[in-house]
Write a structure and sequence with these properties.
There is one protein chain. Helix content is about 45%, strand content about 10%. The protein starts with 16 loop residues before the first helix and ends in a 9-residue tail after the last strand. About 30% of the residues are buried.
Amino acid sequence: ELASLPVTLVQANFCELEHIAGEAGVEKFDGALLDLGLSSDQLADRERGFSYEADGELDLRFNPDEGEPAWRMLEHLSAEDIADIIYHYGEERFSRRIARRIVERRRESPVRTATELAELVRRCVPRSRGHQIDPATRTFQALRIAVNQELKSLEIALRDLPHWIRPGGRVVIISFHSLEDRLVKQAFRDDARYTVLTKKPLRPSDAEAARNPRSRSAKLRAAMITDDANLNTR
């Protein structure tokens, strides 16, 4: 039955709800599912720089036609600005050490590829004994969030979704790190246009995490749009 339903594909940021509604030819949506962050297809693309195991250019843009790539951002930002990005978006406590090394290196040979950055970070961050996460993970996350303005886009979407979804419609959001989850939790709790349906986030079962290791950090939260949510608060 679902396979017979018409589908309209729109390439856009999920915060561009007015544009998406126009392209889809609808006035309101019945619901929304936001699957945040990086997709497996993007991670598998060795030319985009999302994987620090591939020697692709350090781009990190979801849409390669918009904004500036991460390598270019690292060429002109100060050590302080780079450290702030890595600390606030990656929650990396060695952010200043990493930023200083990036700036020192660019005087001779700027960081241009994912493997170059990963190797630099690994030399700055001690690997915890028994810890399986690569030391470069937090830095890559931070730069990706900054390049794509992911948290700003999520804030805009959370603000505007109640206007574009019919009363009684559901908003379901899957997040993959604490910064995203915190924004979703606060919006669902503090915005009266949302009624929380999940008091605690849903997590993948052990069996699902074993089948799909990338789902291990996923958290799903859901809310219903209230009857008075169509007040224009934008």
